[in-house]
Amino acid sequence: MNVDETRQPEEDIENAEDAVAGPAPIVDGEDEGDLLVASHEGLLIEKNDRSLSEFYRWQQSGRLIVDPEWQRQYVWDRKRAAKLVESFLRDIPVPVIYLGRNEEGKYEVIDGLQRLTSVFDFFDNKYPLRGLELVPKYNGRYFKEIDEKDQHKLQDATLRTFELAFRTPKDLMFVIFERLNTGGIRLNDMEIRNCLFRGRLNELIKRLAQDADFLSCVNQRNLATRMSDRTLVLRFLAFYERTYQKAKQGLKAFINEFFTTYRNPSDDKLKEYEKQFRKAMRGSVTVFGDNGF
Fold first, then answer.
1. Alpha-carbon distance 44 to 157, whole Å?
2. Among candidates 58, 101, 76, which has minimal Cα distance to 14?
3. N or C end of the chain, less CB within 10 A?
4. pLDDT confidence of residue 11
């Protein structure tokens, strides 16, 4: 299937949001090249039709994670959200969503954040419907105020979902993430890793990216916009642990292997990483000031 055919207009809003924030800085060597992926007999993807009430129940119980850290924030305006609700009420097809199952058996939203959040907010009576053309009688009404039969219709409406199994090999998962995000501003390598390799190492990287010496030494605005700051931290840790001699299959494979192996390191290893990084950043800012990078 052509992934681009499933994209929603939410991309336009996301593009506008990024334009307002300003371009993310260019990190030298950010292009890690292609990833060599072993041959697989088909993708480990399940196709399901799930009701909106089921997704809502999952979200309420914490089984569905609609805001993984790599996802952009909810940016749809209420008129666009209302149009989506109207589509469900009038059986207008809605593009599929993509989920990834993690090791805890929970589902993380890969593509569909805007659509699902719009539905959940309406179920929670957070906004009234506006700008409806096909069911104008509901303009100005909250979910609790629409006819009971249409409340049930919304709850029973289904979304086609493509669900990536947790057993999907990480290198293949990485490629799938890249290709699912070809529309609008695609996810970069670090944003993908931030979802695939959640754990103690990822939390440490997030924390170290706020180190005062590191920020002074890098001296670039908007470095955190697309996780470019975390990319630099990750590379430091990967080369510290594995050394450049292990990077024989390309930088992308080298970093992914490090993240896979040390995803949840021991307390001692975490302390070692933090100590070495902060020591290096202190040395860099002492010698080079704000010109270290």
1. 26
2. 76
3. N
4. 39
Provide the 3-class DSSP secondary structure of residue 231.
Answer: helix
What confidence tens digit (pLDDT) does each residue in 95-130 have? Answer: 888 888 887 888 888 778 889 999 999 999 999 999
Tally of CB atoms within 10 A around 115: 26
Q: What separation, in Å, do the N-terminal and C-terminal C-alpha atoms of the chain show?
A: 43
Strands 107-111, 97-101: pairing kind = antiparallel
Task: Report d(CA 206, CA 215) in Å as an integer.
Answer: 13
CA 154 to chain centre: 27
Rounded-to-10 torsion of CA 42, 259, 111, 76: -170
Helices and strands (H and E) in the chain: how many: 12, 5
Q: What is the pLDDT of residue 5?
A: 35
Structure-token pair, residue 248: 């024989």
**Section 213-218 average pLDDT:** 92
Query: Where would I find the H helices in the chain?
Result: 10-21, 52-61, 78-89, 113-123, 148-156, 170-180, 189-196, 200-208, 212-218, 228-242, 251-261, 267-288
pTM over 0.70: no
Distance in angstroms (rounded) separating the CA atoms of residues 49 and 45: 13
> What is the model's pLDDT at position 79?
93
pLDDT value at residue 16: 34
DSSP state of 75: -
Query: Measuring CA to CA, which residue among 113, 25, 121 is closest to residue 72?
Result: 113
